[in-house]
Amino acid sequence: METTTHDAIRHDLNARKAMGESGEIVRSEVIARAMLDQDLGYHSDSLRHDYGLDEATRDRLIAHARQDAANAQGNALAAYKAAISAKRVALALGLINAGLLTWVLVRLG
Asked: Where do the TM regions start and end (predicted)?
């Protein structure tokens, strides 16, 4: 029996989890790989696209698409890290504000 894209994703996520890997980044990597495999026709539910491309052109387009995907993943990871950092700063500033407000209220009695 051939594997569907959904089955491949579930299998790969379980394998990565067994290796101690989890989280949104791992999930995105697994889904991206499954989509590539689906586009290449490796899964039983793959749609067959006939774009009339020779193999060299097709391979070059796939390589560029993978490069674009890697770039997008890197940018998304950088944005994620910046958001986490901003969240930490906002929390710290909120705690400082609460502390200062408490101090002022105690001093005013």
From this structure: 89-106
Find all residues with CB under 8 Å of 24, minimum gap 6, and list them: 80
Q: What is the mean pLDDT of the chain?
A: 90
Nearest Cα to 46, choosing from 106, 2, 91, 95? 2
39 falls within a domain: yes
Q: Which residues contact 13 (CB under 8 A, 6 or more apart)?
A: 26, 27, 30
Question: Is the pTM here over 0.70, yes or no?
Answer: no
Range of the domain at 75: 5-81
| Domain-embedded: residue 103 | no
The model's pLDDT over 24-36, given as tens digits with 9 standing for 90+, comes to 888 888 988 888 8
Three-class SS of residue 109? Answer: coil
- Is residue 16 one of the residues assigned to a domain? yes
Report yes or no on 66 lying in a domain: yes
